[in-house]
Amino acid sequence: MKKNIIMTLMMRKMIKMAHIYSEEVMKLFMNPKNMGEIENPSGLGKVGNPVCGDVMWIYIKVNDETDVIEDIKVKTFGCVAAIATSSKTTEKAKGKTLKEAYKITKKQVADDLGGLPKQKMHCSNLAVDALQRAIINYLEKNGRSIKDLEG
Amino acid sequence: MKVYFDNNASTRVDSAVIEAMMPYFTEIISPPSSDYGHSFGVEAKEALDSARETIAAKINVKPSEIIFTSGQAESNNFAVKGIAFANIGKERKTFLASNVSHSTVLDSLSALKKLGFIVKLIKVDSKGFIDRNHLRELLSDSNDTPLLVSVPHGNVEIGTVEDIKEIAYICHEYNVPLHVEATYSFCKVPFDASVVDLATITSHLIHGPKGVGALYIKKGLKIQKLIDGGLQENKKRGGTENLPSIVGFAKAVEIYSQEINERVAELRDYLWQTFEKKISDFQITGPTKTEKRLPNHFSVVISYVEGESILLHLDLLDFMIATGSACSSKQLKASHVLSAIGLPTEVSHGSVRIGLSKYNTKEEIDQFIEHLSSIIARLRAISPMNAEFMREWQDLKDQGAIIEEEHHHDINDAEDD
Prior knowledge:
- The structure holds 2 protein chains of 2 kinds.
- In chain A, 46% of the residues lie in helices and 17% in strands.
- By secondary structure, chain A is α+β, with helices and mostly antiparallel strands.
- In chain A, strands 1-2-3 form a 3-stranded antiparallel sheet.
- In chain A, helix 3 (80-93) crosses helix 6 (121-141).
- The mean pLDDT of chain A is 87.
- Chain B is of the alpha/beta class.
- Chain B folds into 2 domains: 15-255, Aspartate Aminotransferase, domain 2, CATH 3.40.640; 258-398, Alpha-Beta Complex (Aspartate Aminotransferase, domain 1).
- In chain B, the strands form 3 sheets. Chain B has a 7-stranded mixed sheet with strand order 2-8-7-6-5-3-4, with helices on both faces. A 3-stranded antiparallel sheet of chain B has the order 9-10-12. A two-stranded parallel sheet of chain B has the order 1-11.
- The longest helix of chain B has 21 residues, at 258-278.
- Chain B starts with a strand and ends in a 19-residue tail after the last helix.
């Protein structure tokens, strides 16, 4: 009971913060999805730079037969937007084929988050970049090329 | 219950201050400078004079040397631009300022640059203290004697308290006046403004109202007023005086005792000790010796986590603190103070600072540290950064594999190609 009240109060507060971040961003910031790492991943994408304040590592586990991303995890150092975008990007990619996942755009991620403050838009680029690098890393390890996903 | 630990941003107004202000909203309503001779005007004038005396006495100057302003930004603009405008067309054009000066000083100087003035920044050491040799070097250029030197007394971001007497002594050796930005140290650290030429103080950091402050101007110093249209404030600032706030300002000064400072410093020391006990991997920013710091100030950079994320988690738990992380600033630039003390940007992302006040308690500090340590654990658990990561990063940097460039996020980068 008490927990429910606290949750309601917190949610109300998150909505108040919505002038900076959308409700969806705040929700994911509080409870980010797919955080962690995969041991022996099929592909790994590392992007970012500690100087800029965002570092993201995306791990994928791919079914070699079907090309489906069966599991995806991410480790993120960064601000609220960085954490929310890495969560959203991994959610979108999970269960998709490499081809589908490679087509996820930073705009789609930002839109699904209910928008991002202008100066935080680069965070969504970063998460999508990390995903694409992980995919490329998987393809290269398997002697395939990015061209396989085209057409 | 909200816990406010950002008392170097602003403070709660003391109820005794509000009480002192009230009659000046509804009863004594004439402007103090009114020379119509009615009793309200006389009472207002008396209140203004008495406030001026209280504030002048606090920093050991004459009441006639105190000019009331709208606060820190106006006082700093007045100090810097007032000296510049009084010297237009003259030979001397250079201003010296500490590179950890407040943005209201640095931005005023930037505005002057556009008018043809020259600005040189004085280096500070890793704790934020003025590099004396560099100051002397800049002062001793005989072809270019500066118009003014401006330094902070207490630094808002890293808590450094500068030895103003020593700096004043050096500046005066070269006959250059000194402006001291004393906003954050006022009433907290003893300050004898009579040894300097200009000093900025403000009300809202000592439980007084916002929107009022003062500039101390040493008698005889040539300065051009910025607000024309009236003989108020010793003919140095036009406009009807903000009497209720000035009265509140003086009341706040009157009740800000040394005992408060000791109590707050004790809380700060308790916070410091508890922090060191419960949290790993951090680095204190600013002086590590407490006597060289503002008594209510604590600042650190916490490794492998980012300041804005810490702040927001704390805010959701009703704790309010501050950060110097680039990610929390609109320009996405690391704090100029943290850069000036040589902190690499990758480290300054984890900056947090705390400003305590007499309204804080030990219990709040205990709760705060508990929340903070679990937030840090949570953020570190999802962060790819750790000691090993930073070692590798440093190696790459040492090998020159990392090109350090001014990082720039294109805000129009949102659109897909």
